[in-house]
């Protein structure tokens, strides 16, 4: 579930960027790492912040201990 693509992005990164809160919730429940960074050092939380539709995804990540202090 934490297997990255060629850019280091996981399914959770992509679901967060696309604002797919149902998918984000399912991935987290299945054990996705909410703090896994890609090759540029961006976490799913960064991807959520870059999305215009990620408010619920943001809540899900924070509720599941996403590091809000990561750079």
TrEMBL record:
Give the record's keywords alphabetically: ANK repeat, Repeat
User: Is the keyword Repeat assigned to this protein?
Assistant: yes
Could you tell me which Gene3D superfamilies the record lists for this protein? Ankyrin repeat-containing domain
ANK repeat ranges, renumbered to this chain: 7-39, 40-71
Read off the InterPro entries from this record.
Answer: Ankyrin_rpt, Ankyrin_rpt-contain_sf
Q: Does the keyword Transferase apply?
A: no
For this protein, the record's PANTHER family field holds:
ANKYRIN REPEAT DOMAIN-CONTAINING PROTEIN 39, ANKYRIN REPEAT DOMAIN-CONTAINING PROTEIN 39-RELATED
User: Protein name, please?
Assistant: Uncharacterized protein
Highest classification ranks of the organism: Eukaryota, Metazoa, Chordata, Craniata, Vertebrata
